[in-house]
Amino acid sequence: MKEAAALRRLEAADDVAQDLAPSRVEVSRAMITGETLTPDVHPPLDRETGAQLCTMDFADAALDIPIYDPAVGQTIDGLVQEWGHAAALREVGVEPTRTLLIYGPPGSGKTVTAHYIAARLGLPLVTARIDGLISSFLGTTARNIANLFDFANRYACILLLDEFDALAKLRDDAQEIGEIKRVVNSLLQNLDLRREHGITIAITNHDRLLDPAVWRRFEAQIQIGEPEDDAREQMVARFLMPIEAEPSTVRIFSYCLAGRSGADIERICSAVKRHLALNAESRDGPGLFHALSAVLARSPNQTETPARVLARDPEAFVSLIANDSTIGLKQIEIGEATGYGQSRVSDLKKAKRHTVLTEASHA
Ligand SMILES: Nc1ncnc2c1ncn2[C@@H]1O[C@H](COP(=O)(O)OP(=O)(O)OP(=O)(O)O)[C@@H](O)[C@H]1O
Ligand SMILES: [Mg+2]
User: Fold this and answer.
1) pTM for this structure?
2) Same domain for 314 and 204?
3) Is-cis flag, bond preceding 105, omega within 30?
4) 223, 254, 274 — which closes off a domain?
5) Which of 105, 154, 202, 276 has its CA 20 to 30 A from that of 29?
């Protein structure tokens, strides 16, 4: 009996794992050339400092699928499909995309996306930071760039250039302008030549810093921004695990965290779980609601957002969401999720506590 139950649990866990495991796409060898990269291969080093010019990550099949707004998710999936179907593309005279620029604000999931793409293609990821390539000795910088690309081109891998905007900063640097220009140009040339060998992904926070010469080198560009409603709810539900929050609680968290990045949402959900564990609060709606209020009260909230209202005065927040139809929760659901009960929610709704609060804070 016991074993049967354990087996069922295992099977259920397996289903979840399958949901999360990225489905692997077989990359055609015509797309990616080179020897197999293994963990015992030594990465190239900076000659002056001995620092590694890149790190190597090997495809992690257990990686969670990042959470995206639908348009972003479709774009990424489309690219992955291209890389798996190079022959079909060639039959109609087109090539799969080989250079991808990912841009967006901090913590939006750009680096996880590169890891996710590598996992789906089953390829190792060779990551270089542009500022790590730049040596105080300009001659060494040129050599570092050449060595990095030689390495990436020798092995079947995806080359990831993280913090690519350091390049633009370098270009603006007034010092030794001629030499710097040559270094930047050599990087761009290497980028062009690498297209014979495999896929390159570059990441930047500051898309505006990149000039058109850099921009047009990338065949595809993906902007990842702050998650919208649906994606935010999925993130809240995922980052609160193993606590399984009710949909109305997830909705309230998501409402409070509008405009935040994925990394922020993860950080706040972790803080909520810590608070619950240390204060022995219940893991139900009301417990999570109070923990969220406590966590938000500790973090800086400059503007008058719902998060700030919740941080200062949970009752005012209940009044706020009871009056806001966009949250899409009935009074009874709010009552259960917050622990106030339906009739108190109804009173708070009429009292419009939040408007008083908002006006007071503006006075
Ligand atoms: N879209 C997302 N889906 C799932 N998790 C996310 C997402 N965005 C952020 N995260 C979480 O936040 C963490 C930070 O994300 P990541 O390092 O990819 O951000 P980034 O955009 O590269 O930020 P930075 O510009 O600061 O380098 C991840 O480890 C992940 O746990
Ligand atoms: Mg990053």
Assistant:
1) 0.87
2) no
3) no
4) 223
5) 202
